[in-house]
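Q: Structure tokens for this one, please.
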Amino acid sequence: MKIIVVGSSHAGYEAVQTLLKDTPESDIHLYEKGSTVSFLSCGIQSYLEGVSNSLDELHYANEVSYEEQGVHVHTNSEVTDIDAKAKTITVQTADGESKTNYDKLILTPGAIPFQLPVEGTDLENVFYLRGRNWADKVKNRMDSAKKAVVIGAGYIGVEVMEAFAKKGMDTTIIDTLDQILPTYLDKEFTTILEKDLKERGVKVQTKEMVKEIIGESGAVTKVITNKGEYEADTVVIASGIRPATAWLKGLVKLDSKGMIEVDEYMQTSEADIFAAGDATTIPFNPTHSKVNIALASNARRQGIVAAKNISKPVMKMMGVQGTSGLALFDYHFATTGVKALDAYQCEEEVTSCYVEEKIRPDFMYEKDNTVMMKIYYEKESHIIKGAQLMSKEDITASINTMAVVIEAGWTLEHLARTDFFFQPEYNRPWNYLNVLAMKALGESYGSDTMLF
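A: Here is the predicted structure, written as tokens:
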């Protein structure tokens, strides 16, 4: 059986690894339009900040490691067409166009940066940040850049903004919405983060829309918004992503946003063609709907499911909570489930509760020992639908507990009483997650402030 996988990032990588284990007798071919395979875009910030010394470190695999496993790797090979009836793909290389056949096909085309619809995006020193080549361009520019503007304050924008600020660059970040990280955190948290950024000299310009990027002698000099003008010798556009599926129109069924429609087995509308990764939607447990959550963890799960079902349907795609985490200078934060932006999509009325709590007894720790928390839950049933955590302590692993709580359908009452261990060097007699649920229920708890 000849299996072709198109795309080598998270979903493609996981699909190949699963196929190697489950169908070792298969003839596996991996097609990648870039010059390298399995690039880890999630590691770009570490490269920009000098934690990773080389882009070569940010790969799951390379051509040699794949070939050693018996995988046929085709780099610089862009798949441009599919004939589902004839079971062939069309491939464009430097040598021209050719066709090749398949028995099974797994599509993982991923996503591309949203092209900002303004003048000046083609100026010198204006960059997007997606993939190895763009990462290298931005890194090389950082040695001489002085004033940078980052357009877009999601995860990618915030990460590159932090790298620029740590480098000592005069940095401005702009977003059309009224806060940074709008799809990840509520304003209780982002207000704190924005204050911290401003104290570090970062200019945070929210509720502003970029109108034009200006240049002189072909190089960028200024970004103009509906509210102001910002000098810049470097601009990074991080204003979102779009599925890289324009070439698939008419070949497999796409939704109105260009996402590949798949069933619970990751099967597309065409027989023997599967899809996974950022170009597909995924079941979202809190709202019982299918949404686009472009996370590496989701893509890898989908890659496994697509490969497992290559011969016959044996594994359904489980729902997710969209769990993610990040650090921004001194703060660590994580989120799972619904938040202010999408809580209205739940089937029942949802409310929330924000709490600040000590992590450990004061005698165990001298620094800021506070965790900020927010929980979303159904007003009547108290079933938990979402949570956000933030602290100068690294409490991000606790969001995994909340993800399991949501998937299991727990209520506030269950979380308030659940069994967490206690030792003063780690926590308090009531774990902060217990306290979060108790406060949401309006209950008091045995305070240990006087003793500890």
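A few notes: The domain at 324-440 is CATH 3.30.390.30 (Enolase-like; domain 1). The first strand starts at residue 2 and ends at 6.
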